[in-house]
Description:
Chain A is mainly α. The first copy, chain A, contains five helices and two strands. At the A-B interface, helix 2 and helix 5 of A face helix 2 and helix 5 of B.
Amino acid sequence: MRRDIFQAIADPTRRAIMTIIALQAMTPNAIADHFNCTRQSISKHLRILTECKLVKPEQQGREIYYSLEIEKIKEIDKWLNPFRKIWETRFNQLDNVLSTIKKQKK
Amino acid sequence: MRRDIFQAIADPTRRAIMTIIALQAMTPNAIADHFNCTRQSISKHLRILTECKLVKPEQQGREIYYSLEIEKIKEIDKWLNPFRKIWETRFNQLDNVLSTIKKQKK
DNA sequence: TATATATGCAACTATTCGGTTTCACAAATT
DNA sequence: AATTTGTGAAACCGAATAGTTGCATATATA
Lengths: 106, 106
């Protein structure tokens, strides 16, 4: 059972759940209303998201409110960093090329 | 056959391949040297990465050099944007709290 | 207390996934 | 021309995945 954030966000339904509860915490039933699959299926997705800490359950009476653990999402951003550096460098290089052309025009 | 970037980066081997060829384009054989699985397995991963445009093949004689398509990776960054807004907002709110405390100390 | 509601868990199923082995083909080398 | 080298594709396999149905449990409500 691999269970890391990358595998978690691979599923489109789970990404959708993340988007929905980003705005406000919600119960599994309320979440399931947004999809045309069973509540149990959503429950399973929530378990996976909870296991890798992308989501946090909070019991309130017999209801459980799930909310986004925004800190965990930063890990994806962190993974992007080296690649971001590459595209920023390329952008700067393009910038240099453009300013060189500008100078030549002068 | 689902085939989007999120499913592509879900696999750790594929993420490793991306990191390796980020520095310089490489042939499948050269890439496979970094892993203890068969070249064919790497070839399969490269097919998936190519299909969703995260990687670009360039034939050179009988060799094929694979390089990173950095532009495509930006799509993940783009997906992160709404979440980034959330954590930036929270950071600002924390910042406000801190400056309020500071003022009170004065 | 009896019933309805909210939820998670287990068992099952079809499909997908990552890997291997085997093969085919084209380019380089002898 | 024969052989070696670099590569992709197909067939197969075991494990994982996403979904379902059915059940158990706990909290609210009548």
